[in-house]
Amino acid sequence: MDKAAAKNSRGGKLFAPIRPYDQQMLDVGDGHQVYLEQCGNPDGIPVVVFHGGPGGGCSPTMRQFFNPEDYRIILFDQRGCGRSKPHARIKDNTTWHLIKDIELIREALHIDRWIVFGGSWGATLALIYAQSHPRRVAYLALRGIFLATEDELAWFYGGGAGKFFPELWERFTRIIPTEEHDDLIKAYHKRLFSRDKAEQSLYAKAWTGWENALASIDNPGHHIESPAAYALAFARLENHYFSHGAFLDEKTQILANMPSIAHIPATIVQGRHDMICPPTSAYALHKRWPSSELKMIHKAGHALSEDGIAAELLRLMDKLKRQRDTLGL
Questions:
Q1: Beta-strand relationship, 71-76 and 32-40
Q2: How far is CA 162 from CA 45, 157, 171, 213, 226, in A?
Q3: Is 27 a catalytic residue?
Q4: Residue 125 and residue 29 share a domain
Q5: Same domain, 123 and 178
Q6: Residue 86 contacts residue 154 (beta carbons within 8 Å)
Q7: pTM above 0.90, yes or no
Q8: How far apart are the first and last CA of the chain?
Q9: Do 146 and 257 belong to one domain?
Q10: Is 97 an annotated catalytic residue?
């Protein structure tokens, strides 16, 4: 990674910390303001990063997958999370609001086409955005595929993943009355959106802790708690989206609309042992996408920080910088 490279805490080489040259709050309407930042080279290859969740927010580490000499790196916090305002707000906060926001960002930055980089929910959003605006996407760099289907939600909130982490599953479910265990998303929704702030916080930390604990293959089964403000936005927004099936219907389901982006090149990086977004979704997506390549990473879970996943994404972005002319960027 030449002189700009630095080791992260798990040994993978990332580019040294990059400071934004532009930070702003973009008014996207409906009472929402979205935090937006740009890093790297203003004349470089434009790449936009979609964070996970919904509700996760972007982080400085996400900047470090791109050589700042070659890339114009655009990050933003989706509605209601991170530094966007109002915090944890679900009103006027749907998948289709986010798609509109992304186009507002592209237009505000005077970008014609860009590379879209996203993982987990960020990959979901990237796919829906590309299907909605295929002319604006030059390449899709995706990690930890989530297609927002009932089967995927049933796996994670219906006991599938819990079979591998029974002690953590018990911790996640025991604060819900047994008679409500048949629909834990609904049961948590009732408590995450109660009028009791202490109750909201308790269930937000439990919801977020369950997902955090399963993100990395290296976690031996420890509950991982998040700060209260982060947990509240993450849990409320994620539950809100999942309660509504990510606001997708039969006409907008991702796999059904793959023909619209069949021509867009893509790389899918998937952890073989991803407990949050099992590899079957990545494989199904790849099978319907002739211009995609699938990189299945052995001994890797879900997290962006997994050594093999981080290394593959760094290789990919290094390759794409040499294909700027081919990509028309």
A1: antiparallel
A2: 42, 8, 10, 11, 20
A3: no
A4: yes
A5: no
A6: no
A7: yes
A8: 23
A9: yes
A10: no
Given 51, 97, 189, 302, which residue is catalytic? 302
- Among candidate residues 84, 120, 281, 292, the one labeled active-site is 120
Do residues 118 and 212 both lie within one domain?
A: no
**Same-domain pairing of 215 and 305:** no
Q: Write out the two tokens for 23.
A: 């930070």
Tokens of 118: 């996203």
Identify the domain containing residue 179 by its residue range. 151-244
249 is catalytic: no
228 in the same domain as 305:
no
Q: How many CB atoms lie within 10 A of CB 274?
A: 29
pLDDT in tens, 279-328: 999 999 999 999 999 999 999 999 999 999 999 999 999 999 999 999 99
Q: What is the pLDDT of residues 93-133, one digit of tens each?
A: 999 999 999 999 999 999 999 999 999 999 999 999 999 99
Residues 277 and 144 in one domain: yes
Among residues 70, 77, 101, 274, the one annotated as catalytic is 274
Backbone angles phi, psi at 33, to 5 degrees: -120, 130
